[in-house]
Structures
1.
Amino acid sequence: MKKEKTFAFTLAEILITLGIIGVVAAMTIPTLISNYQKKVWTHQLQHSYALLTQGFRRMLADDNTTSLGQTEVFLSIAGEEDPDMGGYNCDFTMETDSNNCKDFYTNLRKYFKIADIKNFKSSDNYGWYFLNGNPHFDFSLYTYSAIVLMDGTMIVVPNFSSKVRPYGIGNFYIDVNGVKKPNKYGRDLFEFYLGDDGILYPRGSKSDDEYWKTTASEYEKCENDGVSYGFGCAGRIMEEGKMNY
């Protein structure tokens, strides 16, 4: 019987093929990882937004009011009245267990699953960066408070008042993955204003002074152009539903 010839790849051909696969993988895997991470951060932000919104809505419902300033939680903010704006203040520079803030944070726990209310120390090694990669703030140099939720979300530099002010009745930053890096505006760090109506308004949204889509300010822009600071990225993500930059 006539034998049929069999064909096989040579070692050189196999090595060339593996080399091509390696090059393609090196080119595509970083992009895939980046896109995946963006989806994770977006989902975490949407989840944190939903949790906070639900908490403030329950707060209003429990006290049968449409004003957070009239709820037991916000009425428990103590201290000296602000001579310019009126009302009492519990801001990020105060110790969380101070006479001004102690009752407020105790009452806040009724509506949010809080793991810790902490003050940053130099040992925390926590700092912020702009979207363009430049450093913004080093918390190790100051005393700043943060509300850490059970899911790892961190409400950083919270500023709450017993009376409505130009920024609402509160404002803060949401760090969706806590102290984990990159701690960068527009990636895992976003600013929100809390309205007296219990609604969270993202910075850079249409309701803000500067809309991310039309602003000429490098601060409010949300573009991966190496220039934008990224403050307005909260508005962009909440509007588009994805990290499209």
2.
Amino acid sequence: MDTGLVMYEEEFERISAILNRLRVDANAKIVFLVDKNGQQIAGAGEIDQVDTTSLASLTAGNVAATDGLAKLIGEKEFSILFHEGKKDNIHISIVGQRLILVVIFDERSSLGLVRLRVRKAAAEVEGVLTQMEAKAREVGSSGQESPFAEITDEDIDALFSE
């Protein structure tokens, strides 16, 4: 898994638009995208109603634990997880083997509708990921170095020892 992918404003806007459209089309309360390390990438809906930092972190942990369960029974992974509650439900899906798409919905929607809409949105997010990877290769092959390439470990040690 390549975790060194850089997301520019253009990709962030496209992913945010996909999440917003998914929230509306699936009649969901909250939709968000996190990486497998538990860092939230983007979100849509009533995200101010929940602790998104904890939710993102716990979701990544849930996916990691479920990956362990899958391997124990001989599966590569379980690409879709579903948790049903009394009021709210959580649909979790793996996108592009590196991101986690989370949809929280209630009785105003259905699992079938969410799954249908998630399938389309996941394909769109994967398209953005593919373009991001191509852009990263293009920037890498153009000879442009990272702005941090010239910073040495000694520079960092000197900065923090003052």
3.
Amino acid sequence: MWEEQLNAAIEAGVKAIDGILKIYNSDFSVEIKDDNSPVTLADKNADKVIREYLHEKYPEYAFLTEESEDDPKRLENDFVWIVDPVDGTKDFVARDGGFTTNIALAYKHEAVVGVVVVPLTGEVYFAAKGLGAFYRKDGVTKRIHVNDKLNDLTVYKSVFHSKPEEEKMFEKHKDRIGRIEKWGSALKPCRIAQGLGELSYRLSDGTKEWDTAASQVIVEQAGGIYLKPNKERIMYNRVDVHNREGYIICNRIENFLL
């Protein structure tokens, strides 16, 4: 049902790569927004490219993006594109490669299409409700699925945003955890969807809808778990765009460790 929108989202994300890398490879400046988060010209340019492309394809759909002013009229629309043009701006500024472009489509508050592009490598993770999850690199596309591991877990933590609450969980469940790795932005859930790791915590309110929508679709369609700590699903196109409760991502519900 969502193939057309999925292909459009992939194309929009890929179109944004050149502009992002042009800034990445230049002596760019960094602004600090009102919420104390960084933003660069790459964020703004990519936002424009993605919005223009998707609006031309689907003029009736609304938008919720990190770098554009929020229009409350989106709340009246069943279809909303949710976009983070550069997820992991701190990684971008640090030039560590750990940033992504996230594009999702929400239909009646459920994320149904998700695309995560890795601009530095050209990798693309993508999924849509009922279609499964996929990974594309160097022109080769493979279907991906979470693994079945229950012990010796690989846990992913944020490079810049790890919190004491999460560190306590690592210590509490150290008997089940084999290794802890740092990965930026949406790479953590995508790697879980790909079967390369099993668990990731975010037990604080530091993320918003555009940080999670795309990767949630990918994880869920890969057979994984992406829930609030109370085990409720994250829904989208909300009045309050903050993910205030945080979330837990894992390969199997048995690893939903709290």
4.
Amino acid sequence: MTGRPLEILEDLYFIERGYLCANHFALRSPAPVLIDTGYKASWGQTRSLLEELGIELSAVARIINTHTHCDHIGGNRAVQSLSGCRIALHPAGKGFMDARDARSPWWSYFHQEADFFDVTETLEDSASIHVGPHEFEVIHTPGHAADGLVLYNRRRRLLISSDTLWEHDIPVMTLRIEGERAVATMLASLDKISRLAVDQVYPGHGPSFRDFPTALRRAQARLGRYLKEPSRIGWDLVKKIAIYTLMMKARIPVDRFFDLLMQTPWYPETVVDYLEGDYHAVFDRLVSSLAERGLIHQERNHWVTTVKP
């Protein structure tokens, strides 16, 4: 699923993708700048979208990443190889890349496809950064990701919220990596951005939206339920990462899906931490629930998802 590029500021375009690739942004001139670059396996489509917008990839001057999860950095190494561009992100993310740490950005934990790249700049909380002529404030928003940040254009009251705030849902919380206080940390990040005057939000997934206060309240309520009922954290993670795994693989043989999940660190750990440790029972409940909701179905003895990548 890909929307038509939308010009949100002069020559700065919002490109809506699905859930395999995060949404991203592209400044065409005077020197191209990209904000996030999608998922590695979809780089061919991402490249075509950018070229159709008139961006010469060998001329890209800088990439800015809102965090280092796989769906936000998938094109980084390819673009940097073509252009020698600078790449800027939060210092925590630079630490992951410099140390060649594949676990902290979740790549190895969820068996995701991603490449390391060279980070040339760091973006500290409260710093200012220019995307062409447009000035953005950098706001560190950990919780979902230790290196998560959002970008705020005060003049136009515009927020690039990445995975810190979506309109109708929240991203997975992975406490095994982000720490036991990750939910509280995420709530603190939402409180931090709640003080901003925002007229338009451009999230990491899904379409742009205007009702910033309602989206905030919805996310805060969901996280509050996580604190009261931790099993919700595990169940949401199992459902969402199972779907994401199907999107990454495109199709998985019915008789191999359980084994594939068990070969990852995340599935057995999540079942033990939140769902009473019965791997088979959770898997059976998972596929029944997703199938009943029409989110997965069988094609020629393979599971596939109906969620648009």
